[in-house]
Amino acid sequence: MSTPATIVPGEIVTVAPGVRRITAPNPGVMTGPGTNSYLIGDSELALIDPGPELDAHRDALLAAAGGRLRWILCTHTHRDHSPLARALQQATGARVLGHGRTPSDGRQDETFKPDRVLRDGEIVDCAGARLRVVHTPGHASNHLCYLLEGSGLLFTGDHVMQGSTVVISPPDGDMQVYLDSLERLLELPVSAFAPGHGHVITTPTEEVRRLIAHRLRREEKIHAALARQGPATLEALVRHAYDDVPERIHPVAMRSLHAHLLRLERNGRAAAAAGTWQAR
């Protein structure tokens, strides 16, 4: 198994037997080193998350697939994960698979039209590579993970990322649903996570528990800040609730802050009025 310390866009990296990773050249605050695409198989290939519509990434994937691409599976329809599906399908004739509903929140790839709509629990047989569909809403309501049966490798898209927490953006993102979906991973026979951003995570149970604990600690910090500062706007509250992250990240952090506040409201611990929030 090859796991270089630095992820290089366009480089082919074997992350497990029969599984290769190629990372798109779209690094950034939201994408880390870039969006990971995974090729699975040998004589016929499945691709998980084609990535953003970038010519360089398209060419790298086509070269690596060598005319063997048959299936394109998307974890969700955020614009760094699914848009390249259309061009790759046109070039190869591969079938596109994914969730059948694209949310209308302005952050989605509205061109996504799967040939096959996937349901939770079903198996996609890709020339012997059996992928179990796991519906994991929260980051996005149409988010799917894929479990490579026999290996225990779970392709997590943006449900779990390496090196960063996932942004939860209401109205489509939902913090309670996200936490529930994380808990569900503890019930699966998973040996490692292959995330949509970053390196393979080889301690999946510990990572899930760490993520849940981190979210709950953040929520308590938000509630404490709200009790001190409220009534407060999101813009005012983020400076106190996320004072441990760089200020340039605050506009993104406000999305997850909002998701936490909605969960606190649902649990009777916060209330919104006239554009401000206060603790209860």
Kindly list the characteristics that best describe this protein.
about 280 residues, Metallo-beta-lactamase, Chain A, Arc Repressor Mutant, subunit A, 7-stranded mixed β-sheet, 5-stranded mixed β-sheet
Describe the structure.
- There is one protein chain.
- With 280 residues, this protein is α/β, with parallel strands linked by helices.
- It is built from 6 helices and 14 strands.
- A hairpin with a 2-residue loop joins strand 13 and strand 14 (276-279).
- Helix 4 (204-229) packs across helix 5 (234-241), helix 4 packs across helix 6 and helix 5 (234-241) crosses helix 6.
- It is elongated and about 60 Å long.
Q: What is the CA-CA span between the terminal residues?
A: 51 Å
Radius of gyration: 19 Å
Give the tally of β-strands: 14
* The number of domains: 2
Average predicted confidence as pLDDT: 96
* Strand ordering within the main sheet: 1-2-3-4-5-6-7
Short structural description:
The protein is α/β, with parallel strands linked by helices and 280 residues long. Helix content is 29%, strand content 23%.
